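Hi, here's the filled form for the chain we discussed.

Project: internal
Contact: R.S.
Residues: 428
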Amino acid sequence: MTEAPRLPLSGGCRNEPILKQRGQREVFCGLTGIIWLHRKMQDAFFLVIGSRTCAHLLQSAAGVMIFAEPRFGTAILEESDLAGMADAQAELDKVVDQLLARRTDIKQLFLVGSCPSEVIKLDLARAAERMTERYAPSVRVLNFSGSGIETTFTQGEDACLAAMVPVLPKTAERQLLLVGALPDVVEEQAVSLLSDMGIGPIKVLPAPRADADLGLGENTVFALTQPFLGDTHAALDRRGARHLPAPFPFGEEGTTAWLRVIAEEFGVDAETFDKVTAAPRARARKAIAQASETLRGKSIFFFPDSQLEIPLARFLTRECGMDAIEISAPFIHKGIVGPDLDLLAQGPTFSEGQDVDLQLDRCRQARPDLTVCGLGLANPLEAEGLATKWAIELVFTPVHFYEQAGDLAGLFSRPLRRADLLHLEATT
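And the returned structure, exactly as it came back:
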């Protein structure tokens, strides 16, 4: 089989010290995950239990779907409910009754808490159990938290998928489960590559419909497509499924390594692997080389936001020639991102969590060529002359696997080219 990626001369960063930050943080809340999840699950509805602020966030972040029946909404709890002065359970039951009576296409209903239960005075887990008994078998009711107090940006998806795992039926079938929501075109590419190697059956979580033939058991092996699925990983492990640790499929190297781990698990021979991957690998290498000309030799600083930071740092340093100064993530789960850490050369500072003021001081002192951060920090840093990349765009843009590798490099080169143009205009 094709030679595996070589470790950096330093031996990797899996055992490097990690700076633990536990101060004020600047991240999007987990409710945002609904924006991409509701597109993947065609018969699901996400009912956010919260305030008008939460309703405004979803509508403005997702865009108001004027010409389509939306598959998310909010059960707005007024101040009296939040203070425990009204029967919130009865109000919630009434909203759900009205929703399901009007929308008979709903087969999965997610009750999404926008605040901790202590704030909204509702136990959504018990509410979901009660409603499941009432509406079964036509509707399955689950709950998860998207609270910005309890979750960071991408943890909404993790919490949602983790809530689905315990209710999946048991199966003894030998199967591959791909875990993580991907754009349809990207998911199709991944399934096509694996199928062409003779691997199957292949299932995906989240499945597009509740009645999908999806079960779990000790003969299930799973590969994560997103590095922020720590709770889902744990839930699958409890069900007896086995994880296939691998670098994440960003860029040519990461995609090849991810595919190789699965291929080896299913006994794919080297000739077949090379035959399936040779052409897309060549296209990816060419696209990356063209898009990363601006990136070579430039420094980059990651603020914690999406939990994509470590795999992206591996891609940018090894395939695009960048130098990482600091790599931060909301959480660092070595059982998940360990293979990417193994491929990173020593040198960057690794930090978990955030104390935003201290991290801003480190960033200003380092003066990186490019800073990856959330929306709330980007404009102030741009005003100080630092080029920035919005972390949120890396989640909403197709960036996985071979055919998107050039686009991924381009997402980082464009802000540098823009900064060069602005500097040129300012000096002429």
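Let me know if anything looks off before we file it.
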